[in-house]
Design brief:
20-stranded parallel beta sheet; mainly beta; single chain; 3% helix; 12-stranded mixed beta sheet; 699 residues
């Protein structure tokens, strides 16, 4: 069968041309085939056995819209292209196999099986189950799975499925485990390319590998290079204790992978496995000269771009990194001898509001508990500039470098940082652990410097002040007040004053309130009036202090990031919404909202309580499902107002956008009259103040 396919690309009509060498796979064609366009193979058995000579310069083409339930594993093969043929829909390469489990239905929507005898991420009725690290979390997650003791039912594998989904009838699949036995090799991935150079992987959908979805690795004692991964969709890893990345690019110690390009891919929905085990979008390991550009990474437990160890000259730019649980960019320090150097993270849009103090993503985990923008544990001469970060409670930049952190320099400049509803002031915008250092001056050890400069910080802190009712105290004269303290004033039960400049109050004169958002001086204290029911996201506060020598802030509406003109809908919440509702909100009448709209509602149970979320689904005219859900003691009360933000616009990082080049993500921020706009760009080149070089724009 293999020999027949050598010239079966000649003269074909399926996208080939005279002289091309191509092999075809179409699972709908049946098991008898020779790999030609007219008679394709039905899986990758023959493809995986092709020799170097048979694959050099060849095309491996998989039928559009078809799903191949098999792993593609090529070893020490060069110069090939993997792609879709015969239509616009991407071919699907699925790394799962059917699972035959015995199920019982002990209670409600919970199903139980002891057949696997271990933790297993399942795909049921074509949907990935989300990992739950507690039984209680399972109760709040449709299509969730949990391994352990549920109630008094004993240790087993449990899943919670929506009403009407029956695992005894619906198809159940699991990601195949890696098998290295000669003669029966199973890759443990949907696509695994080992020691392959000069290849192209384009326009396919790979999903549900157990080790990783797509794993590109080197042979022991050998390097590989010069590859392109473009225009693909990678999604839904399985469950494995040592990986579960959507795309993993790795060389080996002393043999780095070099010159790879990863562009225009979608990497999404990596939540089937425990967050302790990776669940990254894109991970590099022992590489040099990689470019990750124009990719969309969305909804995953772990990190967007991780430089695990020994990475050099990795450029990540113009990517959208959205709804993540770890970090947008992580540079860890495994050992000083394996530090990552000369890497750049620039012009990326990084947005994740899950796991902040009021709302959490509707998945949870024991490891990642708050999305950071950047974590830099070690490494030398790494750069992060012209990025836009929109985050909740977590730090936009976490510096955890220690004395064993290698040479250790990070330069972070010209970044735009927007924090929504942080529970603390902007002091926590930058977090440092592991050593004492100053974000303004050099680190204590002159050889280990963190250079933060020309960044711009905004926050919308305590946007709803209902919780302040529980923490405020009556104003008192000659009293020291710390930043963030709340006081009440005489004659009002709905107005609170927040201390925005610490100091000591006047001996006897109680401050007047002014209008909402205005400030008043009281001795050496500055108070800002906060109404108990302030819900508009158009009100922004500047950072409380400059975090670097030339940082800037102001008080804009940030129209290009979150939009101005918030609207209170005519409908209200009908029925309380707690964690058990899994983000489902019922409204008093037709709400008129669509998937992707951004809304907020006041909640109870916290010191800074507002539920802010994108709408993930609209089951009916009077219901919608929030992408983030309330948790713990938080609750949205029946009758709560719903605020809608009609002008949300995800910032555009397309380099051909002419508006992008004249302000891009920061349209509306900075102008000729804005004194806070830096007069030079990252490279020190002078530029007009009307085109602020801050955030994710081209430089």
């Amino acid at each position: 069968m293999i020999g027949i396919g050598i010239n079966h690309g000649i003269g074909i009509g399926g996208g080939g041309f005279l002289g091309i060498l191509a092999y075809y796979v179409d699972p709908s064609a049946g098991s008898v085939g020779d790999g030609s366009y007219a008679s394709p193979w039905d899986d990758f058995t023959e493809i995986n056995a092709l020799t170097l000579a048979q694959l050099d310069g060849a095309f491996i083409r998989v039928k559009s819209g078809q799903t191949v339930y098999d792993g593609l594993w090529l070893q020490s093969r060069d110069g090939f292209t993997i792609e879709t043929y015969g239509g616009s829909a991407q071919a699907i390469i699925d790394g799962t196999e059917a699972a035959s489990y015995t199920w019982t239905n002990p209670t409600g929507l919970i199903w139980r099986t002891t057949t696997p005898g271990a933790a297993v991420g399942l795909f049921i009725d074509g949907v990935a189950t989300r990992f739950c690290n507690t039984a209680a979390q399972l109760d709040n997650t449709d299509f969730g799975w949990f391994y352990g003791n549920y109630s008094a039912l004993g240790t087993a594998l449990y899943v919670r499925l929506p009403s009407g989904v029956d695992p005894t009838v619906a198809p159940v699949r699991i990601a195949r485990a890696e098998n290295l036995t000669p003669g029966s090799l199973v890759p443990g991935c949907a696509i695994r390319l080992t020691g392959c150079s000069g290849f192209t992987l384009q326009n396919v959908n790979a999903r549900r590998g157990r080790l990783h979805v797509v794993n590109v690795e080197g042979n022991v004692g050998a390097a590989y290079s010069d590859f392109t991964i473009d225009g693909n969709t990678f999604e839904e890893a399985g469950y494995y204790s040592g990986g579960c990345d959507l795309l993993n690019i790795m060389g080996s110690s002393g043999y780095r992978a070099t010159n790879g390009t990863i562009t225009n891919n979608v990497l999404k929905n990596n939540v089937t496995s425990d967050g302790n085990n990776g669940c990254n979008a894109l991970e590099f390991n022992h590489v040099d000269g990689m470019t990750a550009r124009g990719n969309r990474m969305q909804t995953f437990w772990g990190n967007g771009v991780e430089l695990y160890r020994n990475c050099r000259n990795v450029l990540a730019e113009r990517n959208r990194i959205l709804d993540f649980g770890g970090r947008a960019w992580w540079v860890p320090m495994i050992t000083a001898s394996q530090q990552s150097q000369d890497n750049t993270f620039r012009n990326n849009i990084c947005i994740s509001l899950g796991n902040h103090h009021t709302m959490r993503s509707n998945w949870g985990g024991s490891f990642y508990n708050g999305p950071n923008g950047i974590t830099h544990d070690g490494g030398d001469r790494n750069l992060a500039y012209n990025n836009t970060f929109v985050l909740g409670d977590a730090a936009w930049l976490s510096l955890a470098q220690t004395a064993s952190g290698g040479d250790g320099t990070l330069t972070a400049r010209n970044n735009l940082v927007v924090k929504i509803e942080p529970t603390t002031n902007s002091n926590a915008t930058v977090a440092g652990t592991g050593r004492v250092w100053s974000p303004v001056a050099d680190a204590p050890d002159a050889a280990k410097e963190f250079n933060l400069d020309y960044n711009r910080y905004y926050q919308r802190r305590r946007g709803n002040f209902a919780g302040a009712v529980n923490t405020r105290t009556a104003w008192a004269g000659s009293t020291a007040y710390s930043l963030g303290a709340f006081v009440s004033i005489s004659g009002s039960s709905t107005i609170v004053l927040e201390c925005t400049t610490a100091g000591t109050s006047h001996a006897s004169s109680e401050p007047t309130s002014g209008s909402a958002g205005t400030t008043v001086t009281d001795g050496t204290v500055t108070w800002t009036r906060r109404d108990v029911a302030l819900t508009t996201l158009a009100t922004w506060q500047a950072a409380d202090a400059d975090l670097d020598a030339h940082s800037s802030h102001g008080n804009p509406t940030l129209t290009a990031i979150l939009g101005a003109g918030s609207q209170v809908l005519a409908v209200t919440v009908s029925g309380n919404v707690a964690a058990a509702q899994n983000g489902l909100v019922t409204t008093s009448a037709a709400h008129g909202r669509s998937v992707g709209d951004w809304v907020s509602m006041p909640t109870t149970g916290g010191s800074s309580a507002i539920a802010y979320s994108r709408i993930a689904a609209v089951p009916s005219a009077t219901t919608f499902v929030m992408e983030y859900q309330v948790y713990g003691s938080q609750q949205i009360n029946s009758g709560a107002a719903i605020t809608y933000y009609p002008n949300w616009a995800e910032p555009d990082v397309t380099p051909t956008d002419t508006a992008l080049r004249s302000g891009g993500a920061n349209r509306g921020i900075g102008s000729g009259t804005d004194a806070n706009v830096p007069t030079v760009d990252y490279a020190g080149t002078a530029r007009p103040s009307s085109s602020p070089c801050i955030g994710a724009i081209e430089v």
